[in-house]
Structures are given as C-alpha cells and as structure tokens.
Specification:
Elements lengths: L42 E7 L4 H6 L12 E4 L5 H10 L12 H16 L15 H7 L4 E6 L16 E4 L6 H6 L9 E7 L25 H5 L3 E2 L2 E2 L11 H28 L4 E6 L5 E2 L5 E2 L6 H4 E8 L2
Parallel strand pairs: 1-5, 1-8, 3-4, 3-5
Antiparallel strand pairs: 2-11, 6-7, 8-11, 9-10
The protein binds zinc ion.
Zinc ion binds next to loops.
Length: 320
C-alpha cells in the first residue's frame, strides 16, 4: 500500500497531461490565476524561526509573539532546514505526535485546519492533490499572491522549493526579519501568502545590530557551503577525517543563552508585524527543527537523531 492510500477517498487522480509542444505560459509567468475562491479569505503568514528550540522559546518568555495563541509543543517532520521547509510547504506543519492514531487520519484532521487559516471552506488533504504543495494550491486554486523571504542560503531561489511563488527572495543578511517587513505589502484585491524564514534564531544567534566581529566563532560550523569541501582532497578526507576538538559545555551554554536572547529581540519585530498586518490575517509561528546544545555530545541540527532536534514551538491565530 502506498502512503497516501486512503487519503484521497474514492476520487481518481487526474489523467496525466499530454506533453505540450510549446510552453503553456509566457517565460517567467505561471499561468492564469483565478479570482479568490471564497468571499472572506485571510492573508496567511507562516513565520519559521529557524533552529528555535521549544524550550529556548519558553525560556525567553515572549509576551508579544504569544498574543497569537497558546504555545504548543510539537515535532517537526525533519531535522534540517531544506527538508523541513519542503514539509511545511506541503502543508505538513509540525505534528502533535498523537498515539493510537493512524497517520492517514491525522493528516485528514490536520488539513481541515487550513479552512480556518485561509478563511476557506471544504479544504481537505485531497484539495492539495496532485501537487501536494501549498503555494501551488494557494496561487492556482485559491487565487493568492504568494511570497517567500528566506534567510538561509539552502533555501535560495534557485532551489526546487521556489515553485509557484510570485516573489521569492534570499535576504541580504541572514538575521534581519525587520528587513522582510520593510518589503511586506498586501492587496485589497486578493489575499497574500508569506513564508518568512527567520535567521536570528539560527547559529550564531545574533541580533542584526551586533557587529560580526563579536559573533561566536566555532570552527567548522560557519556555513555548510563554504567549508563543506575544505576537508576533502582528491576524494579523501584530510588528516584522516579528524575534526577540531569539540567545544566545551560552557561555550554551548552561552550559545543557548544567545538563542534565547534573539527570541527576546524578535519581540519588537513581532510588535511591528502585528501592527502592520490587515485585520483578516492569520499567522502561524513555528520552527523548522530544534537545536542541540551539548545533549549527548551533539551540537546543532541536521545529521542528529535526538528528541530535541525535532521538538519545536507552535502557535497560531489572528492578532485582531
Ligand atoms: Zn533550519
């Protein structure tokens, strides 16, 4: 049985589209967008606090961000930025990990929540078929404008995650959510969707005002692209694959404190966000994965199998 069996009811999948002899849309275009499908639809914003641990979020005691609703402890489907954002954009928001529930039943129930988020009716898991990609559904079925502003280069606009977005921008600085808000606009004609991938909470956990020379420097962790090949010579690991000595717990505790500090800093950015959004705006705030600060010898996220790398905060609602 396939993993989606039972999710699509008795509806048959559409027959494959015949191969077109010429492009179906103008270069740079994405085909016709329908009028908004329902009368009172919401703008929908999903804010991903990259790497933000659930317990860091609680320790920061945010008073502004939490105006949206109660903070839930949830679990991400993935431990690294790229696959996690793919899941999020499929509509698979961090899950509640309920026991004694079939996955197919969980997906069905969870997708019904999109009616409230979008101000729509009749949305179910099958509505996302066959693309299984939220921006495609928002743009081509519900008539949304779709935008992404990302902080991490692994989500840059050339990656396959940039699909059916009207605009998709890798921000100049990796840690400046305020700059995203400078460019946020809404239309009275149709609802807007925004994905904000926020980097303040990502290593090195720095406020945008902090000079770079004060950022903590950990050898081997500065940029997965920049240093990934440094250790490889003619297909072999240099020095037999030896890495720098692992940093001490004292340093890791400082880093955890820095992540908490960035959440406290983001309070003022969320104040601005909540002031800027029109009345009919639904907002989800969560993380793409957690972060390890020394537990069982781990630092960071990605190739780590540990509860804390999946545990994330989740909250959502309308601010007014
Ligand atoms: Zn991430």
């Amino acid at each position: 049985m396939g993993i989606f069996d039972g999710l699509f009811g008795k509806k048959k999948m559409a027959a494959p589209t015949p191969v077109a002899r010429r492009p179906l849309m103008a270069p740079g275009g994405m085909g016709k967008r329908p009028d908004p499908l329902y009368d009172e639809m919401n703008n929908y914003i999903i804010v991903i606090l990259d790497s933000c641990r659930y317990d860091s979020f609680l320790a920061a005691e945010p008073k502004v961000i939490t105006k949206l609703g109660p903070v839930e402890r949830r679990w991400s489907y993935a431990s690294w930025t790229a696959p996690s954002h793919y899941n999020l954009l499929m509509g698979l928001l961090p899950h509640t990990s309920p026991p004694h529930v079939y996955a197919s039943d969980y997906y069905k129930e969870d997708f019904i929540r999109f009616n409230e988020r979008f101000g729509a009716k009749d949305i179910e898991f099958a509505s996302f078929v066959p693309h299984l990609f939220m921006p495609t559904y928002l743009r081509k079925t519900l008539g949304y404008f779709t935008h992404a502003k990302v902080s991490l280069p692994v989500l840059n606009p050339k990656t396959p995650i940039n699909r059916d977005f009207d605009t998709f921008k890798l921000m100049e600085k990796h840690n400046d959510m305020n700059a995203m808000l400078d460019e946020m606009t809404f239309s009275s004609e149709r609802p807007s969707f925004y994905l904000f991938n926020v980097g303040e909470t990502h290593y090195p956990y720095a406020r945008p005002t902090e000079p770079k020379n004060l950022w903590p420097r950990l050898s081997g962790v500065h940029g997965v692209f920049k240093h990934l090949d440094d250790h490889v010579t003619e297909g072999k690991l240099k020095d037999g694959g030896k890495t720098e000595p692992f940093f001490d717990q004292e340093k890791l505790d400082i880093l955890r404190g820095r992540q908490i500090d960035t959440i406290q800093y983001l309070e003022e950015v969320f104040t601005r966000l909540y002031d800027m959004v029109p009345k009919n705006t639904y907002i989800t705030v969560t993380s793409d994965h957690g972060e390890l600060f020394g537990e069982e010898g781990y630092f960071g996220h990605g190739p780590i199998q540990h509860d804390k790398v999946y545990e994330v905060p989740f909250l959502e609602g309308k601010i007014r």
